[in-house]
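Amino acid chain:
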Amino acid sequence: MIRGTFKFSLAAGVFICTLFALSGRMGSNPFTDINQLFFDLILLGVFIFFSINEFKKYTNGGVLHFWQGMTIGFFVYTLAIALFIAFLYLYFYFDGNLLDDYKATAMAYLQQRADLYKEQFGEAQYLAQEEAIRQTTTNHLILVTSVKKILVGLFITPVLSILLRSKPKN
């Protein structure tokens, strides 16, 4: 069951890394751009779908239990995100300005909406948020970005497992 997921995991990881690099090169900050999550949802969803569907059709004779779909989906997004984490470490290593660019973008975004933020959360929380942005490290940024992608995988995998499951024919 797991052997067939490697090609889909690798492909998903490559696509996620490529999308991340391209969005950074096209002027968007992939750490702060919410569209990145939507693209992750679509990419992971497509590769998890094809992985589960291939297992169901070609390995398991048209039968898929929920737990099988969950297991396959888990391995696809876990391995893809592991590849993405390795990519991010290399990306940070070769692009020394990436962390500074993130901090500048995040600070500009926060200052742009300062009045609204202070109104909703208060002055103290605003200052704490500014300090949190200044204290952000490479490891913290990689962790937060990876957790977002894991949450996307945790959301899409049960949905696809339910949609693709089937009962054995007697």
Observations:
- The CA atoms of residues 43 and 81 lie 12 Å apart.
- The chain has a mean pLDDT of 91.
